Amino acid sequence: MSLPKPLKPSVQLKANNGDVSLMTKQKFDYMSEIERLRARIDEIDEEIIRLLRERIEVASRIGEVKARLGLPVVDEGREKVVLERAGEFRQVFEAIIRVSRDVQRV
């Protein structure tokens, strides 16, 4: 994804809460690009949240089965595999695993 090419800095007036300030066309284009990218991040975040909810639901069901079988909540071997697979997102998955453990304990 590339940023817009620099433009000749023509000056525009921009109203911001009643204040009028000068903004170059280039800066305005970059701000528009930032807003477009932030909208995409919002879409991605919604999908991540949906998937996390689904993961927590599955973890909860696993917790129910473990309780019926008398198994401990923590499975260090499984957690190690998940964390290795997470790679550069290890810290994120450590947090996800903590939440999953809590859900399984309930």
Structural commentary:
The structure is a single chain. This protein has helices at 25-69, 76-86, 90-105; strands at 11-16, 19-24. Mean pLDDT is 86; it is low at 7-11. Helix 1 (25-69) packs across helix 3 (90-105) and helix 2 packs antiparallel against helix 3. The protein contains three helices and two strands; from the N terminus they run E-E-H-H-H. Strand 1 and strand 2 form a beta hairpin. The protein has a two-stranded antiparallel ribbon with strand order 1-2. 68% of the residues lie in helices and 11% in strands. The protein has one domain: Chorismate mutase (Chorismate Mutase Domain, subunit A), CATH 1.20.59.10. By secondary structure, it is mostly helical.
Give the helix/strand layout.
Blueprint: E1 11-16, E2 19-24, H1 25-69, H2 76-86, H3 90-105
Antiparallel strand pairs: 1-2
Helix pairs in contact: 1-3, 2-3
EC number: 5.4.99.5
InterPro entries: Chorismate_II_sf, Chorismate_mutase-related, Chorismate_mutase_highGC-bac, CM_dom_sf, CM_II_prokaryot
Organism: Thermococcus gammatolerans (strain DSM 15229 / JCM 11827 / EJ3)
Short description:
By secondary structure, this protein is mostly helical. The chain has 3 helices and 2 strands; from the N terminus they run E-E-H-H-H.
